[in-house]
Design brief:
By secondary structure, the protein is of the alpha/beta class. Helices cover 20% and strands 23% of the residues. β10 and β11 form a beta hairpin. The mean pLDDT is 96. Bound molecules: ligand FFO and adenosine-5'-triphosphate. Its EC number is 6.3.3.2.
């Protein structure tokens, strides 16, 4: 029997939680080097990252390797369950959102619409070889980047994950926004849309 989405989420979370500190550090470094080596990800502009929580692959090394003219941003939860983004540098003030995830503490007027990014690094629990993604279940990325279903990037949507987060073919829901590419410590997958 195929697992339900909640079962699959638990299984993938357990696999990610089982990684050692050393494996996490090595993977984070490998992913950062892999991303920095992709010329198509080096265009200047706003780059949407995430603040890693709950065993997600950390992005500190990615932030240190941004291309000239790239500005690191973090997501902010909106009341309508979408995301906006705001530039953030180490030392800038943060405030925890309802899930306890730190967000830049900025006035709403200085936040960016997702369409203003050149690149978004997308957190996920699971991915498959077709570029489908299983997230935490809030639908935040699907809602925020729904416009990418009708047009091409930028912003390019690049999933970031440990190789152990690969799942068998994920059934795509009508609202799912597919990834353009995905980086793990082992490989770079481009889905060619
Ligand atoms: N680091 C990071 N930031 C992110 C996301 C993410 O996946 N990772 N998001 C991507 O969408 C958004 C937040 N989305 C979330 C969606 C659902 C839950 C959630 O349901 N949490 C459960 C417990 C989950 C668990 O730990 O098992 C809860 O609080 O009850 C949390 C965050 C924006 N920021
Ligand atoms: N464009 C949209 N408009 C309205 N509702 C949406 C949209 N996209 C997703 N949703 C809703 O969000 C819910 C969660 O979707 P899903 O389980 O695919 O989230 P996810 O991709 O795992 O989460 P996240 O992006 O937060 O990591 C769904 O029940 C769906 O109804």
């Amino acid at each position: 029997m195929n697992p339900t989405r909640p079962e699959l989420r638990r299984e993938l979370q357990a696999r990610r939680a089982a990684l050692s500190a050393g494996e996490r550090l090595a993977a984070a470094d490998a992913v950062a080097r892999r991303l920095a080596a992709r010329p198509e990800l080096r265009a200047p502009g706003y780059v949407g990252g995430y603040w890693a929580v709950g065993g997600e692959l950390p992005l500190h090394s990615v932030q240190l390797r941004l291309a000239p003219g790239q500005v690191w941003c973090l997501p902010l939860l909106q009341p309508d369950k979408s995301l906006r983004f705001a530039p953030w540098r180490p030392g800038d003030p943060l405030v925890n959102n309802r899930y306890g995830i730190p967000e830049p503490e900025v006035a709403p007027s200085s936040t960016l619409d997702p369409a203003e990014l050149v690149l978004a690094l997308v957190p996920l629990l699971g991915f498959d070889r077709a570029g489908h993604r299983l997230g935490m279940g809030g639908g935040y990325y699907d809602r925020s980047f729904a416009f990418r279903r009708e047009r091409t990037g930028p912003p390019w949507l690049v999933g970031v994950a440990y190789a152990c987060q690969e799942a068998p073919a994920l059934a795509a829901e009508a609202w799912d926004v597919d990834l353009d590419a995905l980086a793990t410590e082992r490989e770079w997958l481009a889905f060619g849309r």
